[in-house]
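Support reply, case 0932

Customer input (verbatim):
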Amino acid sequence: MAPSSHEAGLLSGVRVLEAASMIMVPSVGAVLADYGAQVIKLEPIEGDLNRRGHQIPGMPVHDYEYCFLPDNRGKRSLSIDLKAPESRAILRRLVEGADVFLTNHRPKSLASLGLGWDELQAINPRLVYAHGTGFGDVGEEIDKPGFDSVCYWSRSGMEANLFPTDGWLGPLGYGTGDHPTGMALLSAVLLALLARGRSGRGTRVSCSLLASGAWSNSVMIQARLLGAQFLERRPREDARSFTSVYYRAGDRRLFKMAVVDTRRDWPKICRAIGRPELVHDPRYATLEERLKEGRMRELIELCDRIFAGQPMPYWQRVLEEADVPYSVVANFDDVIADGQMAANGVFVEIDDPVLGRVRTVDTPMRIEGQPKVARAPAPRLGEHTRAILSELGLDEREIDSLARRRVVADRASPSAPIPGPQ
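Our regenerated output:
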């Protein structure tokens, strides 16, 4: 594989093959590309399914394939039919020159494609082989289809704890279990590269949505493992803590506090809401008194009335002055205008061939003294097919023949500009 056009980065010279779709495993490739690795994305002829994620009913409406953008910036797209016998020689050449292979294909699929660990290790003993799965490496469920909404959220117990005491949950955020799982798999990849630097040999690493969900919810699972008693859930007005519920300010903005050390923070809250006399009120002065029957209900009703008396900007100022942890429940207009996120580089700009200059969400980590390379846009489907095959030694006639037989696809021409808000 030819060197990337990226400027030198921490991972400059690391060559990555990504045979993966959707979010979890592609997020690994996104971070590797951010730090200078050359990532070739092997896409089926019809493209990564995530290119059509924006067409799922209920998703925000836009013509651009925005689901695909955050996890595929800076990659090169080779559109290839991995099932075609003619693709085997191409894949072998790519694997021979790769440092990392990323995949989320199910085990049966990997076996049928000849892309299992044993096959690729035989081709390249230095290869780090990273497998992101829904349900793990062993057991009866390893070949089941898995998405974060079921493997990560539902199976971990987290979703059950989010249900309101009456009614149903709305849709969970798109890919919100994929990204933390991807970052766990990224850690395994980097550790394997470190180990290879010492031993000279590659290895297989893996992470599953199932295990990542359990790890994310490990405190509550640990409680159950020890036989802890789980208390029945209560409606908001009878919550066990007045600081664990949501409140509405006078302008109807929703917010919540996050008070862990109530002994320290009780006086702060009393002063913030303009009721300093409650600090020493015997009904509420200690947590033990506040937990007595009906007391939390009284505090919730009191706070409801007080918070409704002033708009959110007032409570933001007051709560910050009192050093009370809180947050407005942000909508997406709030998020993209968040000054603290902007100050910390959460959003970066890229030049997209369709949208022009556009902001996107950056990968979350920073390494002092090791900046990320200049961000390139997400590739168009098959944008680099011809260039990559040429680098492997195929001439134009051979590439044209493969394209005619639909073994590969070359779709480098940009689409017409799509109007839309930036």
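We compared this against your earlier run and they match. Two observations from our side: Residues 1-6, 412-422 have pLDDT under 50 and may be disordered. Residues 46 and 79 are 8 Å apart (CA to CA). Please reopen the case if you see a mismatch on your end.
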